[in-house]
Design a protein that fits this description.
about 0% strand, elongated, single chain
Amino acid sequence: AIEGLKTFIPLYFAQVTGKSAAEFAPLLDSLSLAGIIGTIFSGPLADRVGRRNVMIWSMAVAAASVFIFLRSEGLLQLAAISIFGIATTAPWTITVTMVQDAMPNNLGLASGLTLGTAYGAAGIGVTGPNVIVGGEQATASISTHTSQMIDIAQVRGTVHAKAVQKVGKLA
């Protein structure tokens, strides 16, 4: 969802509102930075209130924040997109741990499958429509975008699995 919105925001602002890149760039920055907050704090929050509650509430908050984002301007719009960034990234860490629980003997594989699927879907979701509309220009970006997503997923999966193993040894 977050990658799709990063693609949607520039198109929306350029075509619908006529605003320049300088006017919507802070929104993209806020979306990305807020995503960091969502991934960091969702794990401890899920430990306190439960995984299911965090997942349900994050999706409800994400839907409401997009609604507000599309119907507002200025600081309210900036706040709405930041809340969306937090809400859409909150389930990431939870889904990784859920899959790891289902595959306790293959933590690295579980992390890689979870993150690889998520980033792969994001790559297809972002570049797929560009291919239909953009033709040759978009096809050149597909391989770059997809390989970047695969690299990120592999690194995150490996780092996450090693961290989980260290924590498991300490317990």
